[in-house]
Write a structure and sequence with these properties.
The complex is a heterodimer of chains A (176) and B (353). Chain A contains six helices and no strands. Chain A is an all-alpha fold and 176 residues long. Chain B has six helices and twelve strands. In chain B, 35% of the residues lie in helices and 21% in strands. In chain B, β6 and β7 form a beta hairpin. The chains are: A mainly alpha (176), B alpha+beta (353). Chain B: It comes from Sphaerisporangium rufum.
Chain lengths: 176, 353
């Protein structure tokens, strides 16, 4: 119960930090990190497909009403729901390759958002504009993801173990 | 297997729900069913965003101070030079205090656009992760702000209000690609449309499309807003930007230029919402004084020693500010106010850059 309330408060805090601080930083390249997307991706990685999809939907719905919003309601609910579900499913199927999953999700999420915007005729979601901002968006999000991974592995007290490989011919050391 | 099936079912339900939401909201975009929801969320998050901004502001100011240190050094030098020049001008001005008072009152009068403005602070921003350029300001319907009102700051046009909550309201910026504002070239009546270019321009350029293909566009000309009916959503006469380059579009019906906005959209802080438009269009009166022609090495005004030496008034600034009675100071006849006036006009032109 306490954990759930803490998670809700953390989500709200991330959204407010995103619109009050991160989006107002004049970062080079035109893009900026999307903390909300990274939060959904990390949650889905930890919890799996269904919680990831549901959380993505709820978070997206709140993002749609978060002021200042000038887009159609439900747009980000759709995007984050799909992203959360797919990331969670990938984490269930291939639990070892979470870094690859995050990279793919970060690459695909802006394209998905632009695609949904384009489907409903949003004039802001042109491909030319998107492709110019896309590299910097992906880069900033990957930096955030790397920081998150580092923080989790650093503070959870659990070093990433390298399993002993039965090599047969020579004794493999644990912890290279 | 059953788990996968359940997962697919959940995903399907969520997708259908979001598609239904999108459809409902898209079809009734102006009087949407979700306006109460948005209003409630606006009140709730508006308070939180306001508190967050208050917390963060000192840190942000400090970071900006550190980042702007090299430029601050340069500005201190510039200000020092300007200070010396102003002090000299002051000495000149004391000679003819009455004329100075008259001139400054006239300048003040012409500078007044006659708008009634509610001041507000930017408390949150939507940036690239949403493809829209919108900010939240801390003035709402309690302060008299309504939807479709013009927003400006000390430099020029900022955008328009799209939604006014009780305490906060959302403003779509001029750089948003979906926003379009009527605009007019300074001086003549070439009318066009200003569009934003979105995040890849980083708020540094906007597109100005002139409706007349034979219009004479040149870099350095300035744009003011054209105004809409009853001043909604844009009032007339607000400075928009300076044309930076003109695109060659042979054979097209419109001409396209890219302009640098007067407003620095990356560092918006205090803005004003126009709650009542002036009765008359202020035309070009609100434009800042034109910078001296070659901007970097400003031609030094002649040393103050030979005071009665007549200086031909430099073209633009003194034509606007220096000769209120329309008599260009005749070169060669050392009338006492002649050089005095042209000097002041020149300094007036350089304060702005």
């Amino acid at each position: 119960m306490i954990r759930a309330m803490a998670a809700v408060l953390l989500g709200a805090l991330i959204m407010i930090v995103q619109v009050t601080i991160v989006n107002r930083l004049p970062l080079p390249g035109g893009g900026g990190p999307d903390l909300i997307l990274m939060g959904v991706v990390m949650f889905a990685l930890a919890r799996g497909a269904v919680p990831g999809g549901v959380t993505g939907f709820v978070v997206g719905l709140v993002t749609d009403v978060l002021p200042p919003a000038a887009h159609v309601m439900g747009q980000y609910a759709l995007v984050f729901c799909v992203v959360g579900f797919l990331v969670g499913r990938a984490a269930e199927r291939a639990p070892g390759s979470s870094a690859l999953t995050v990279i793919l999700a970060v690459l695909a999420a802006p394209l998905l958002a632009a695609g949904v915007g384009g489907l409903i005729g949003d004039p802001r979601a042109g491909w030319g504009a998107l492709l110019r901002v896309w590299p910097s968006l992906v880069m900033y999000n990957l930096v955030v993801a790397a920081l998150a991974f580092w923080a989790v592995s650093r503070f959870s007290g659990e070093r990433p173990r390298r399993a002993a490989v039965p090599t047969g011919s020579y004794p493999a050391r644990r912890r290279v | 297997m059953r788990d996968t099936r359940r997962a697919r079912f959940v995903l399907g339900v969520l997708l259908v729900v979001s598609l239904v939401l999108i459809t409902i909201d898209h079809r009734r975009h102006h009087d949407s069913l979700f306006d109460p929801v948005r209003g409630a969320a606006g009140s709730l998050f508006g308070v939180a965003e306001r508190a967050g901004t208050e917390l963060v502001r000192p840190v942000a100011d400090f970071a900006r101070m550190i980042g702007g240190a090299p430029e601050a050094g340069r500005r201190i030098d510039g200000l020092r030079a300007e200070n010396a020049r102003l002090r000299r001008d002051l000495a000149v001005a004391t000679l003819d205090r009455h004329r100075s008072a008259e001139l400054s009152s006239m300048l003040g009068l012409s500078g007044l656009g006659g708008y009634r403005v509610v001041a507000a602070q930017v408390i949150a921003r939507r940036g690239v992760p949403g493809f829209e350029d919108a900010v939240e300001i801390d003035a709402g319907s309690a302060d008299g702000v309504r939807a479709e009102m013009t927003v400006l700051n000390g430099d020029g046009l900022v955008g328009r209000v799209v939604r006014a909550g009780p305490m906060t309201s959302a403003v779509v910026l001029l750089t948003d690609p979906a926003s379009a504002a009527g605009a007019r070239l300074e001086g003549n009546n070439e009318v066009g449309v200003v569009n934003g270019l979105g995040p890849e321009a980083e708020g540094r350029l906007i597109r100005f499309r002139v409706l007349d293909s034979a219009a004479s566009l040149a870099a350095g000309r300035r744009i003011v807003s054209f105004g809409s009916q009853e001043g909604r959503p844009y009032v007339a006469g607000v400075p928009v930007g300076t044309i930076e380059r003109v695109e060659a579009t042979p054979g097209e019906l419109t001409r396209v230029a890219y302009a640098r906005p007067f407003v620095d959209f990356t560092a918006l802080d205090v803005v004003g919402v126009v709650v009542a438009a002036p009765r008359r269009d202020p035309r070009d009166a609100m434009l800042p004084p034109r910078p001296a022609r070659p901007p970097a090495p400003a031609p030094k005004p002649p040393a103050p020693a030979p005071r009665p030496a007549p200086v031909a008034p430099s073209a633009a600034p003194s034509a606007r500010a220096g000769t209120p009675d329309g008599t260009p100071a005749p070169a060669g006849t050392p009338t006492p106010p002649g050089p005095d006036r042209s000097e002041r006009g020149r300094s007036e032109g350089q304060v702005g850059d």
